[in-house]
Amino acid sequence: MTTQSPDGSGVFPNIAEALSRGETVAVATIVGRRGSTPREIGARMLVGPRGGIVGTVGGGAAEAEICRRAATVLAGGGAQLLTLDLTGTLQLPLQGICGGSFDVFIEPWRGSAGETGPPQGKGVEPLDLVRAAMSELEAGRSATLVTVIEAEGGWSAGVGARVLLGEGRRLTTGDLPGDLMTQAALAAAEQDLGAEAGARVHELTAADGSARARALVERLRPPEAMLIMGGGHVAQPLAVIATTCGLAVTVVDDRQEFATAARFPTAQAVVADGAAFLAERRPGATTHVVFVNRGPAQDIAALGTLLKAAAGGYIGLIGSQRRVWSVLQALRAEGVPAEQLGRVRGPVGLDLGGTTPAEIALEIMAEFLKWRHQSTGQELSARLRRRLLRQEAPASG
Length: 397
Fold this sequence. Notes:
Largest sheet: 6 strands, parallel
Distance between the termini: 34 Å
Radius of gyration: 24 Å
Low-confidence stretches: 114-122, 192-197
Strand order of the largest sheet: 12-11-10-13-14-15
Oligomer: single chain
Mean pLDDT: 85
Number of strands: 15
Number of domains: 2
Structural class: alpha/beta
């Protein structure tokens, strides 16, 4: 099952499928935002030739307008850069009221047999670019996609041009002017990309000042992974929720009857193994491990292997206070350093009062997302309720 990357590359398999059929699709990408908006820069949506969409740039009236503009692009128009205003009121039903605004770049991506509109003329076939990006991500490597969204002067013909850069190398070729290509590559190399800052627009200027451009620089990352150690009742809904949230899920259980694809249809892999699985792979910081084993013996063996190697990102351990305490004390006695034991979130999950396997799985993913986004985990309504009591209208957000 295809997982959704935390950046705009989540729709690439759908784009590749359409382009391989020779279809032309419109691709809408958020390239700027101000104030409160539903999605982040780099969020991407595909609009097909019959109006179907994959992905989202926020929904509502703004997305409906983007679909209307996409139809124009698909009918033969060129790329469009538009601004959507979300500062409306309830009296303006066709305008969002989130409180901010965002810019979206809508461009045609044409398959090899596409006949709609003028030739692409940008040097690299879209299908080749998408396949190259997918190949890098599937191999566990990051890539950087540079797209020219505005240009003037000697670079004016470059709007819509794209280039894909790998780790230390150029993956696709194009007919960008050499100096624009140099500027784009420098922007990609110098961009400060934090965990939540995968895309940014750069202002580019020719060395002699005769041309200017704006380019979206996106760092495309492989989807993060989750190892679910144990294939019991909680593991089943946890695998579904984690996959839906964009994680590449692997389920590990040493019991053959539990480690089956039929029990975990959304998982990328299901492995009949135990602690040895972790010892052989040593998960990196973008691989998160949740232990939902059937007993403390399995926890001690597998968790000890992980912690002694200082491996993995988020680490969760299911169980009662007593069970978790017993496991951690046993690992301490084995010589696992205190700082490594402190990484374990156990009993795993936020206290939402859940009792069923599905509810417990949701509690686990809620805590993981809180950790991943470094958020407060507070009710979103709390601040607004306080304002309501004071009759203070929010400006945005």
